[in-house]
Design brief:
With 143 residues, this protein is of the alpha/beta class. Helix content is 38%, strand content 19%. Strand 3, helix 3 and strand 4 form a beta-alpha-beta unit. The longest helix is centred in the middle third of the chain and has 13 residues. It is globular, with a radius of gyration of 15 Å. The chain starts with 10 loop residues before the first strand and ends in a 13-residue tail after the last helix.
Length: 143
């Protein structure tokens, strides 16, 4: 497994539906590799994300959890897109491993889709991959 580089100074707003995911996201925020990241975690899913971001600056990354059916989720994401800056990245957390849903999410500009179960380090690795600079080497060296 490749090492995970520390993330750049970015802002993240995460909105979970489940309490278990909320606690997992708090562990992600406390990960040492996230030390330069400003991360806010709230309950409420996509609906809460839209309400919160309608009156606040859009963060660099939005993490949303949804257990909605495909059509409802896509409608909610379209509504969320109306209040977000075009440059923001979105990671969706779901419970269904559905390739058609994944493709539709990618077509709508979602950066990544991750399915339960996953660990905090899995999500940190995913976020790091979104902001990785391939020309930059990791800080440490093994001799």
């Amino acid at each position: 497994m490749t090492p995970i580089a520390p993330l750049p100074p970015i802002s993240i707003s995460a909105f979970s539906e489940e309490v278990e995911t909320y606690h997992l996201l708090l562990k992600v925020a406390a990960d040492p590799r996230m030390s330069r990241v400003q991360m806010q975690v709230d309950l409420g899913g996509v609906t809460a994300a839209r309400e919160a971001l309608a009156s606040a600056p859009t963060p660099n990354l939005i993490i949303i959890e949804s257990s909605d059916e495909r059509e409802i989720l896509l409608e909610k994401l379209d509504a969320l897109a109306e209040v977000c800056d075009p440059g923001s990245k979105v990671v969706a957390i779901g419970a269904v491993n559905d390739i058609m849903l994944y493709r539709e999410l990618m077509e709508r500009g979602v950066s990544e889709y991750i399915v339960h179960p996953f660990s905090p380090s899995d999500l940190v690795r995913l976020i790091a991959g979104l902001y990785a600079n391939p020309s930059q080497r990791l800080v440490g060296r093994v001799i």
